[in-house]
From TrEMBL:
A UniProt-annotated Pfam family: Aldedh
Source organism of this protein record: Metabacillus herbersteinensis
Coiled coil: none
Lineage top rank: taxon: Bacteria
Protein name: Aldehyde dehydrogenase family protein
Length: 487
């Protein structure tokens, strides 16, 4: 194991930087350089969770009384500070996640700034309503925060996904204890430091550690009044059981196997760029909304596959900090081995054809990190695990279609329903397909990212609840109280 200037970063509990009660640390590695340790962070236990949750519970008593527009002003200051430190945060994200700085990490920081500004603005939109009743009766509702929010996030866009919990939770008067992902806590700890500068102690607490230790302790703590989780569907199910044990609400942003449907009129270079963007190759395909099932109409199949293969061949896979790199490395060995397992399965499956990419070279500079090339497979009938399961790597499965009803049926024949992409210029086709696809987010002729203001979240096993929007904030972080007054 290579140690390269290892620093010990600390958690944020009750406004102070904190080690764990046991003083144990664990290593954070740079996935672009196998075995190199870039920092150590505290290994939080149930004891640390208890300290953090109690601090958040204490802070809730006064934070809920702070006027929402004042809370919004503080969030705006956090956004400004993130902007000022943007490049440093982007470099941290690139180093710990393997995501390329130019095509991904800087964009993540930009999104963090937009998220904080958006929720700063809508903080004062937390309103109730009045209800028409009898003459001598008045009835109205008000929205109130829950209290301590327990939040858990994954590693693939760690600071953005943490901001999507912290900003709306705090804007609506809750306090929060957030557990960062064990592979990528460093950018989140930088954000935590900024939050500590502007928010009173205990309002935002960030802990680091393992899911089955401090994660479970957080989801079972009696003072946590609501759980918000982003991660895999499998862990989401266990977390929902935890919520059921205490009858507390749970929001889940989970996995996906999102389809892209290309109609005959969409055989252009611009569409090819859009497909690549929707597939999230810039994040090595490690995105919940990656469009990993590509359905191409028979009439354009060969021509579009050729264009796609040519474009993907131009992408440069390399060091995430290199400005030339379009793609960086996979997050860790476990994920790398999992993706390679899928690729091997595709190569050995008679029903599946490898078009480009494949298993990584065992020698050469890229073998120093967990790098994989963009990989395209084709399969006539979609009858393969590669077309059904979330791979979370740069692997795209292409399938032909002829009949619109059949392709919609194939698209919907999935336990997931997070995102979908439709490529056509025909307006009636757009309207018809958009209403038939079972997904929480449908993009037509666009492969870009989510944007604050528009709800994002899954149908089916891709999740429960919405993020990114005012509605999402109100539904996830406030509860309605109805008040009736008889005069
Ligand atoms: P994961 O479910 O393994 O881990 C996510 C987080 O949960 C980590 O912080 C982990 O420590 C914690 N955790 C694990 N077990 C736990 C337990 N028993 N109790 C409490 N916490 C526990 O997911 P991952 O591999 O880190 O991330 C990839 C997954 O996240 C993919 O499935 C992806 O689709 C999904 N994701 C979804 C969205 C979305 O918005 N829908 C966004 C990003 C990622």
């Amino acid at each position: 194991m290579k140690f390269v200037s290892v620093v010990q970063e600390l958690m944020l509990i009750n406004g102070k930087r904190a080690a764990s009660a046991s003083s144990e640390f664990f290593s954070i590695e740079n996935p672009a350089e196998k075995g190199s340790v870039i920092a150590e962070v505290p290994r939080a236990s149930a004891e640390d969770v208890d300290i953090a949750v109690k601090a958040a519970d204490e802070a809730f008593k006064f934070w809920r009384e702070v006027p929402s527009r004042e809370r919004g002003k503080l969030l705006w200051k956090i956004a400004d500070a993130v902007e000022a430190q943007g490049e440093e945060i982007a470099r941290t994200i690139a180093t710990e996640t393997g995501n390329a700085i130019r095509t991904q990490a800087r964009g993540e920081v930009k999104s963090v700034i937009e998220i904080f500004r958006y929720f700063a603005g809508v903080a004062s939109e937390i309103k109730g309503s009045t209800c028409p009743v009898d003459n001598n009766l008045m009835a109205y509702t008000q929205r109130e925060p829950y209290g301590v929010i327990g939040a858990i996030v994954p590693w693939n866009a760690p600071v953005q996904l943490s901001s999507l919990k912290i900003a709306p939770a705090v804007a609506s008067g809750n306090t929060i204890v957030l557990k960062a992902a064990e592979d990528a806590p460093l950018g989140v700890l930088k954000l935590a430091k900024i939050c500590a500068e502007y928010l009173p102690p205990g309002v935002v607490n960030v802990i680091t550690g393992f899911g089955q230790e401090c994660g479970e302790a957080l989801t079972s703590h009696p003072l946590v009044k609501k759980i918000t989780f982003t991660g895999s569907t499998a862990v989401g199910k266990t977390i929902m059981h935890k919520g059921a044990d205490r009858i507390i609400p749970v929001s889940l942003e989970l996995g996906g196997k999102s389809p892209q449907i290309v109609f005959p009129d969409a055989n252009t270079d611009k569409v090819v760029d859009g497909i690549i963007s929707a597939m999230r190759f810039a994040r090595q395909g490690q995105s919940c909304s990656a469009g990993t099932r590509l359905y191409l109409h028979n009439s354009i199949f060969d021509s579009l596959v050729e264009k796609l293969a040519n474009k993907l061949g131009e992408l440069k896979v390399g060091n995430p900090l290199d400005e030339e790199s379009d793609m960086g490395s996979i997050i860790n060995k476990k994920q790398f081995d999992k993706v390679c397992g899928f690729i091997e399965e595709g190569i050995n499956d008679e029903n599946v054809e490898l078009l480009i990419g494949g298993l990584p070279a065992e020698e050469g500079p890229l073998s120093q990190g967990y790098y994989l090339q963009p990989t395209l497979f084709a399969c006539k009938n979609g009858n393969t695990r590669l077309a059904k399961e979330e791979i979370f790597g740069p692997v795209l499965m292409i399938m032909p279609w002829e009949d619109e009803d059949e392709v919609i049926q194939a698209v919907n024949n999935s336990s997931y329903g997070l995102a979908a992409y439709v490529w056509t210029n025909d307006t009636t086709t757009v309207l018809r397909t958009a209403s038939k696809i079972e997904s929480g987010w449908i993009q037509v002729n666009r492969g870009g990212a989510q944007m604050p203001g528009l709800s994002y979240g899954g149908y089916k096993q891709s999740g429960i609840g919405r993020e990114f929007s005012l509605e999402g904030m109100l539904d996830s972080y406030t509860q309605i109280k109805s008040i009736m007054i008889d005069f």
